[in-house]
Design a protein that fits this description.
Distance between the termini: 43 Å
Strand content: 35-45%
Strand order of the largest sheet: 2-1-6-5-4-3
Order of helices and strands: HHEEHEEEE
Length: 148
């Protein structure tokens, strides 16, 4: 198994489980995947832009508490792009976290978060060092004009 395939099948599977736990209010699996060594950074979907492990840890706990107060289902982490550097020390992913919010009347509201992550190998293990997430806007480009 090559470096990229191993990264995709092992680490990204763990990350998918961690992010699904996060939408159910459990921050611990996410914390376990992050580097505790600066520099680490977050450009968050709900506004927090933070650097430094102490700030990120507090922010992730806040996000988990906020998410945990709502019912969600059908989580997916759809990775569109994944790459590992030639020396095997850095990697990045670009993709989407998709899930449904279950409303009080039982209806489902779809959520899509665009996410980019940067990873660093530390002591032979992949660790996340940066996350940028935002709520996906409607694509207004000319190529999609007929779908609007």
């Amino acid at each position: 198994m090559g470096e990229l395939e191993a990264f995709r099948t092992v680490f990204l599977a763990r990350q998918t489980q961690a992010e699904e736990a996060m939408i159910h209010g459990d921050v611990e699996p996410r914390l376990a995947l992050w580097s505790k060594d600066d520099p680490v950074s977050l450009l968050g979907a709900w506004g927090p832009n933070r650097t430094g492990w102490a700030e990120l840890e507090r922010t992730f706990a806040w996000v988990a508490a906020r998410l945990g107060g709502t019912n969600y289902s059908d989580f997916r982490f759809d990775v569109e792009v994944a790459e590992v550097s030639a020396d095997g020390q850095m990697a990045y992913t670009v993709g989407f976290e998709r899930f449904n919010e279950i409303l009080a009347d039982g209806e489902r509201k779809a959520w899509t978060v665009r996410v980019t992550h940067v990873y660093r190998r530390e002591d032979g293990e992949w660790k996340i060092v940066h996350r940028h997430g935002d709520l996906a806007p409607i694509d207004e480009s000319p190529a999609n004009a007929e779908t609007r």
